[in-house]
Structure formats: structure tokens, C-alpha cells
Amino acid sequence: MEDHLEALMANPQQVLRQMQRTFHGQNCPAVAAAVHRYLQTGESRQAADNLGGGFICTNPLYTRNEFAGYVSTISSGAVGNCAVIGTHDGRPSHYFNMVKLDAGVYFVDAFTSSPIFSQQESGLVSGYGRFEFFRDFSCHRST
Q: Is pLDDT of 51 > 80?
């Protein structure tokens, strides 16, 4: 396993806090983009504070029943296989990450004050009906 993924496994709170920042508003997609960049490249930097506009749903939406199938796709890939998940329908939309590590698939949310690094997705996806999955993700706002 690559060094940055080993560091994440060894001390997820310390690694994920490096990507947090104080925003001028809700900005979980920017944090998810920072975590995604870290998972793919090992580059650790604070999330960008993008202001204005709203996020556009551009990928196909999957139902709650289809969610497990997508998790299985990530799980069957190589270590480091990752995606960003966008939630829709229900509570306000939220974005977080999913990554395959040696021990299995982990769900990662560095937007929360105490970052989440867990093999249990239930707290992140409960209350939502549709999901958007990104294999490549960068934070873009519409204006």
C-alpha cells in the first residue's frame, strides 16, 4: 500500500484535519475534492473556499438499493480505488469519499468537525434516496 494511504490508516484524524478549513458557508464538496486529491496523489492541502453559486448534478443518480452495488465495484478494485459520493433527496445534499484500503472499503467525511473514517456507511447515507458517484472529482460551482 502506498505511504499516504498507510498514513491515513495509521492516523485518519490527523491526516483528514489537514484538509479542513473554516468556510464562508457550507462547502462539503470542496472538502471531498481535497480528500479525493489526497487519496489519488498523496497531496495534502486545505480545501478551497469556493464562494457563490450552487453545485450541479452531472452524473447518473443511483437509488439506495443500487448503492451496495457501487460499493462492491470499489471493493473489487485495487487498493486506493476511490470515489466521491454525492447524496440527493432527503436532507440537504452532502458529499463524502469512499476508498478501498487493505482492510476493506472505508467511508471518509472530513467535512465534519471530527472527521469520519469508518467501514460503516449508514450514518452518512441514511435519509437519502439518490446518490451520485464520481471517479474523477473536482469542485466546480455554477453561477
A: no
